[in-house]
Amino acid sequence: MEKSTQEQPNKFGNISRKFVVSALFEKSVLKEINFDPIEETDILSNIYIGRVENIVKNIQAAFIEIEKGLKCYYSLEDNENPIFTKKNGKNNLNIGDELLVQVSKEAIKTKAAVVSSNLNFKGKYFILTTEIQKIGYSNKLDKKQKSKLQNLLQDFKMDSFGMIVRTNAQSASKEQLEMEWNHLKTLCSELLEKAPYRTCFSLLYQANPKYLEPLNSSYCNDIDEIITDDENIYRELKEYSNKEQSLIEKLKFYDDKLLPLVKLYSIEKHMDSILKERVWLKSGAYIIIQPTEAFVSIDVNTGKFVGKKRLQETFLKINLEAAEEIAKQIRLRNLSGICVIDFIDLEREEDKKVLMNSFKKYLELDPIPIHLVGMSKLNLVELTRKKIRKSIYEQVSIKCPLCHGNGYLY
């Protein structure tokens, strides 16, 4: 990664901030991309000792300060068992109380960041939880895989912790699973032991940088190679992958100062396309993607498409093509929350079923959980996608950072 701090103009505007650009390609097709500002502090998943600044009973919430001047939203309904380090009154929660909280959602526009008392510690195979003390399984694991894992995990000691079994666990040995589970328990236990002796606003646990998260993802085992052109990131990736020999073997350092990775893989060209509202389909039809404050609106239009068949068959063909592209764009743009899709109206119920079944299959390729709600009476298709990271629009603020560009691709 270049360390230049000079502003260099491009068609997206003057950019002076530096980013780590990470991208996932499958058969030379861009599937995911993210931009992480190097000079900005990321607080997501960090654990702090926070102080209750205000309690708003009519919305069943409190506002907790985790750093001087940084107040976060805390749901009273979702956090029944706070972990206090300093208690002031007899009520369950009082102004001035100090407690352990973890940032569960980033601040979005005018909304404050969200914190929770349910501490989570992520590994490759498990997520340890402190409040929900039971075993849960990834929705991407089928019945056979769950049954196999249940047999492997029956001797594991829970020690008053909860466990979420991740998709990666299906390919791990019992020894690998046990080693990671014991590590997560030790990590959490040590944090809980030292917390009462630390001062308010202390950062007790700092999450790994976001660009390292793909190494714990469900598709990590299918990655052919991990390439970076930055020496510091290469060392970081190597250290992070140290326990996984298979990952070490896939890690490669790209050393060509004249042609950085973002140029080699035409990332700027991809970004130009991603930031546009209109996406053209091969048939000549197009979709319009418009994020709003409340939800993401996606509209399907016939455009230049000229069908030779009957009208309803033409509409079905366009909708099926659009469904595949919409699923790709949701993942690529990292859209989350509520999405409302206005497909071209279909009259026949059997055509609607074909469209919804196909759309569901395309959405299932996304590693992030998506719930396809269904089609409303107005023929609008509704879905929700779990928010893991900010959308591309939020990450780059409609500005492309690639004049400084470099990063890594996986």
UniProtKB/TrEMBL annotation:
It comes from the Bacteria. The keyword Hydrolase applies. GO terms for cellular component: cytoplasm. SUPFAM superfamilies: Nucleic acid-binding proteins. Keywords: Hydrolase, Magnesium, Metal-binding, RNA-binding. Its cofactor is Mg(2+). One of its GO terms (molecular function) is hydrolase activity. One of its GO terms (biological process) is rRNA processing. Residues 122-387 form the RNA-binding protein AU-1/Ribonuclease E/G domain. InterPro entries: NA-bd_OB-fold, RNA-bd_AU-1/RNase_E/G, RNase_E/G. This is Ribonuclease E/G. It comes from Anaerosacchariphilus polymeriproducens. The lineage of its organism: Bacteria, Bacillati, Bacillota, Clostridia, Lachnospirales.
